[in-house]
Write a structure and sequence with these properties.
The chain has about 110 residues and is an alpha+beta fold. It has five helices and two strands, in the order H-H-E-H-E-H-H. A two-stranded parallel ribbon has the order 1-2.
């Protein structure tokens, strides 16, 4: 579902934003992410997990270590807020929306 929200948001900037759907985190497409960062000069990792201890931090750390000079802006994460989620129905309301993606992307 998040990839659909991201592609909806990316449609606002045709040809300037790439959306990569990382289906797995082990292994994850390091080369694909680095290629996209080198092409666009930007990185915004959007995912449903909380900001603290989320896999987005690993992606950002790898990009900073491997492609820092390619970044035209700080790498960032758009995540669910750091708060306890008590039930799956509560988690749905805390996921980033397409409008959140639009407000965070500044290509």
């Amino acid at each position: 579902e998040m990839v659909h929200r991201c592609t909806d948001a990316a449609a606002t900037w045709p040809g300037r934003v790439e959306v990569l759907d990382l289906r797995t985190i082990v292994p994850w497409d390091v080369e694909g992410v680095l290629r996209s960062v080198r092409k666009t000069g930007r990185l915004l990792v959007v995912h449903e997990d909380t900001r603290t201890v989320g896999f987005a931090a690993e992606i950002v750390a790898t990009v900073v270590a491997e492609a820092f000079a390619s970044l035209d802006a700080p790498a960032d994460r758009l995540t669910a807020p750091d708060c306890p989620v008590r039930a799956p129905s509560c988690a749905i309301t805390s996921r980033p929306t397409a409008s959140c993606c639009c407000s965070c992307w500044r290509p």
